């Protein structure tokens, strides 16, 4: 069983034992919230819930997941950016975190937050998105889907977690590369968009593999292609867009933990050590993510910051290609 004793030992190994000893009495001394900026059921939720449960075993405090959806993830992310920098409010974010401020500027609005207001602590997962249609849909391959879209421009509908969300950006990459016109239907999160696909309210969706996998296994949905450089575990029969000739169509939904930027460095380090510990040693967390089709892809420190820098630049270019949405 993981415990605060291991966390304190890890902190001591990194030269933080004086702080850690004080933190045993002063931090954490109350409930810690992990905010998800989307409704339950989406990719951020899939990562947040087992991670929060594992952190409870280390911190010795409740770590409830709080869903604060709205504006494609803007409202929940902004709430953490403005939260007290005391380590008691964290954000489990998706890759859309880095492009939403740019989308706000495109719309002529002042962004509700800037990425610089949030401190990256650790990446938890990094999954390619999967193109889904209903199992009852007439398209059994990507080629059939693209041919139908070209024959019916603007008629085939697809959902997303909101304008400029990760799911929207992924589909925009596909529509640009394939020269097709699809009708975008934004929702408040990946969970509601997936529900809409299951109920035939929409006809297609780019989804993280975790939420999609159970429905594909049950035969309710069909996966046509994935945005990864390699095929995804659990979706071994599903080709990548790169394999199918769309060499520029590559996209990942990553999930990561962030704190308000002004959170003291020792508290950030306590979080980082705790996340590193549970991701390395908590079997329940590892099993939960694996079973959800979203295995661990842990990264922290300079590696995560560099990953974010490169990913933000790539996604910002994609959002700028989408342009202003009136």
Automatic annotation (TrEMBL):
It comes from the Bacteria. CDD domains: PBP2_Bug_TTT. SUPFAM superfamilies: Periplasmic binding protein-like II. Keywords: Signal. Residues 1-23 form the signal peptide. Pfam families: TctC. Belongs to the UPF0065 (bug) family. This is Tripartite tricarboxylate transporter substrate binding protein.
